[in-house]
Design brief:
The structure holds 2 protein chains of 2 kinds. Chain A is mostly helical. Chain A contains 10 helices and no strands. Chain A is globular and about 65 Å long. Chain B has a two-stranded antiparallel sheet. Chain B starts with 16 loop residues before the first helix and ends in an 8-residue tail after the last helix. The chains are: A mainly alpha, B mainly alpha.
Chain lengths: 200, 231
């Protein structure tokens, strides 16, 4: 259990998907203009990461691995299968949420399709493979990674809401400023690197 | 996503003004990174060295051109409702080809780029150009568009990588230029003029990539004021 919490803390703060690996930067910059939309997208990312990560783990180990059901090394199919799983899971989640919780659907609605091409999701799955996590570790990694991404996007959205009232040079307004702010936030998150997750 | 403009229906593979515009527009006026803001995701992480950036650029140019051509040739057969998945499968196949090629012929770069090769799949440039251009135009024009956007992306990558590698490690393409040991061309321990110089390790880390791009965007928009955000 301690190991899992360790992985959660590490993936949420120290190896933050957005601020240490630049993953999901496109939607991170595009959807961080207001806190409300940022929260919506962040929640959707946590949700999808936590679902796709274990599924991709099962596919990678039991279907593609050398000890899987085919007894051959099929890892060259990894990209195609992973992205197909992510695309179809996003579609499925969208349909289920629409049916059973229309209010949640209305708040997440437009962000769900965006998530298919969010590199944080595919990147998370690929990191899970390269770090050789087992099943429960991959669940913790999915949750932690999603939570870290959520924190990052909500924080930048809050800063961008405030920065609107500042006198920024015209050429730096909008996109340029968002990059600078992300850089500064990255420096702040680097300060967390000294944390020893084993202490938790 | 800039324009879904359909280029006039023409026969033959001419190379006139319009075609030249397709090729040069993404280099500055409509640059994928600084103007369209696509594909920053996997780009920044590989710009710690110029060699990796070059490998990544070539891989993206390859995927961009071929996915554009393939999608554009199939554009009349792809049903609208499943086009995303079809596009993703086309891209994923091409990226798998790139990955296997790198694994076979450039194993060192493959090791260093690790998961970021796979992330070309979700690189928004590729997907964005398929959606905005290849679905509506002939394969020939799509090829030029893919080449232009791939190169526009590569140029920014190389500029960022140059600043990060030179100021972070004192190297260019892995050749040691300036630093505190006899291996470097300018040895700061002995040279009197450069004695104060120290490579700044921060340039290799995450935040500096953001700062370098922010300054690039600033310079680009100061040079071309029509690109400034109105909001």
């Amino acid at each position: 259990m301690g190991d899992l919490i360790n992985i959660f803390i590490k993936s949420a703060f120290i190896e933050n998907l957005a601020l240490a690996y630049f993953l999901g930067m496109c939607s991170y910059l595009a959807v961080s203009k207001t806190v409300k939309t940022a929260v919506g997208l962040g929640l959707a990312v946590i949700f999808v990461l936590a679902i796709t990560m274990p599924i991709n783990w099962v596919i990678n180990t039991w279907l593609l691995g050398e000890n899987g059901i085919f007894q051959t090394d099929l890892t060259f199919l990894r990209f195609i299968l992973f992205i197909a799983v992510i695309a179809s899971m996003v579609q499925l989640v969208e349909m289920v949420v629409e049916k059973y919780s229309p209010s949640l659907y209305n708040s997440l609605g437009i962000f769900l399709p965006l998530i298919t091409v969010n590199c944080a999701i595919l990147g998370g799955s690929l990191f899970m493979v390269s770090k050789e996590y087992n099943f429960s570790e991959s669940v913790a990694f999915g949750l932690g990674g999603g939570f870290g991404w959520f924190l990052a996007i909500v924080a930048i959205a809050a800063i961008r809401e405030k920065i609107k009232y500042s006198a920024v040079p015209p050429a730096l307004r909008g996109l340029g400023m968002a990059f600078l702010l992300t850089g500064l936030m990255g420096m702040a998150f680097m300060g967390l690197m000294g944390i020893d997750p084993a202490a938790f | 996503m800039a324009d879904t403009a359909v280029i006039e229906k023409k026969q033959g593979l001419t190379f006139g003004k319009k075609e030249r515009k397709l090729l040069t527009d993404p280099l500055s006026q409509n640059n994928p990174i600084t103007v369209q803001v696509l594909g920053i995701c996997s780009a920044l992480a590989v710009t710690t060295g110029m060699k990796n950036a070059l490998v990544m650029s070539v891989a993206v140019i390859f995927v961009c051109i071929f996915s554009n051509v393939i999608t554009s040739s199939l554009r009349k057969m792809i049903p609208k409702s499943v086009r995303m998945i079809v596009q993703l499968i086309i891209i994923a196949t091409l990226v798998t080809v790139v990955e296997l090629l790198l694994k076979a012929y450039a194993f060192e770069s493959y090791k260093q780029l690790s998961v970021f090769i796979g992330l070309i799949i979700t690189n928004c440039i590729v997907m964005g150009r398929l959606e905005a251009f290849a679905m509506a135009n002939r394969p020939y024009e799509s090829m030029l568009d893919g080449l232009g956007n791939g190169v526009g992306y590569g140029i920014i990558l190389m500029i960022v990588a140059f600043f990060r590698e030179f100021f972070g490690k004192g190297e260019v393409f892995g050749a040691k230029i300036i630093g505190a040991s006899p291996d470097y061309m300018i040895n700061t321990l002995e040279s009197g003029i450069f004695g104060w110089y120290q490579p700044n390790n921060l340039m290799v880390l995450f935040p500096s990539a953001m700062f370098v791009i922010a300054i690039l965007i600033w310079a680009h928009r100061a040079w071309k004021p029509q690109l400034v955000d109105v909001s």
